[in-house]
Amino acid sequence: MRQFALAVLVSAVTAAVYAPIALLWWRRVRVRGRTLRLVAAVEPESYHAAVLRGEATEAAAAELVLGGYLRIDGEGAAFLTEQGRDPARTPVHPLPAALLEAVRRHDPEPVSIGWIHWWDEDYPARLRAYRRERDALLPVIPRMPGGERNPLLACCGCAAVALVMLFWLLAGALLVTGRPQGLREWGWTAVAAFGLAALLLAEKASRTVRERTEPGDPLGDRVRAEPHPALAALDEEQRTLVLRSLGERDRWRGVDTIVHEEADDEDDEGHEGDDEWLDDKVWWEDAYEYRASDEDEPDATPPRPASSG
After folding, report:
1. Which among 19, 2, 1, 6 is positioned nearest to 195, based on CA atoms?
2. How far apart are CA 103 and CA 253, in angstroms?
């Protein structure tokens, strides 16, 4: 009778522990399937996919190079071609068009794509506006259950784990100290032992459910599947020049170079005035110390003897 009651009690506790795990698995499988279906229905525009990969400016520069609007030299400076200077000729897509307008504002001074990407006044704002516009068209990805952190639920979970472990110790002690008689009692003992072993594996089962139902980043995997067509069409030399110009953030600054050079000249003049003031100050301090040491030294000239007349 003792083994039967122990088997029933252990089975009930095991079922109570595994029921939330099974419910979590069912909910996560449904959400994962819905997420994958939503992402499979998305057809991201090529430049939107490039924005999500962080390659939008690189793709726009590649299109301008392939279209004959830009020429990039070996040092990463971008120059307009005759076609690029023609205001009647502009790319259809807004991103390469915005990049071409930024280069035109700096013409005829050399400017790097990296300088425009980081420091231009208009192009970064248009890039962000384009991303907001395209992101609004993406479906809302459902939140995976079990990922949120609720302090109250966490405390209840800790208390439940402590109670289950206490029950496991008591049930294990009763199981070990019991003396089953007959085949039936040995069968109930085996059921109780199986339940206690299953309780030990409950944490691992919960972790396995979360790992196997995790959807990952399906949208990111989709946009990373293939590069932008303009980037794929570049040869190795063109790609190297585009990446070099994109990496140059401070060297080629277009018309802004003139402003910075004037500012540098003013700074140099100010530093020269500071140097002259420091020289005067040092000279005055040296002269003061020399005068003070002059006064402190005793007169080394011997006194002249008084005349007898």
Report:
1. 6
2. 10
The span from the CA of 241 to the CA of 76, in Å, is: 6
- DSSP characters for the chain? -HHHHHHHHHHHHHHHHHHHHHHHHHHHHHHHHHHHHHHHT----HHHHHHHHT-HHHHHHHHHHHTTSEEE-TTS-EEE-HHHH-TT---SSHHHHHHHHHHHHHTTS-B-HHHHHHH-SSHHHHHHHHHHHHHTTSPPPPPPTT-S--HHHHHHHHHHHHHHHHHHHHHHHHHHH----HHHHHHHHHHHHHHHHHHHTHHHHHHHHHHHT----HHHHHHTSS--HHHHH--HHHHHHHHHHHH-SSS-BTTHHHHHHHHHHHHHHHHHHHHHHHHHHHHHHHHHHHHHHHHHSPP-SPPPPPP--
Q: What is the pLDDT of residue 265?
A: 46
**The pLDDT of residue 182:** 77
pTM metric for this prediction: 0.66
Instruction: List average pLDDT for each run of 10 residues in the chain, which is 309 residues long.
Output: 81 90 92 91 91 93 94 90 91 94 88 91 93 92 74 74 82 77 82 87 90 88 88 93 88 56 46 46 41 44 44
- Gyration radius of the chain's alpha carbons: 40
* 260-295 exposure pattern, b = at least 16 Cβ within 10 A, e = fewer: eeeeeeeeeeeeeeeeeeeeeeeeeeeeeeeeeeee
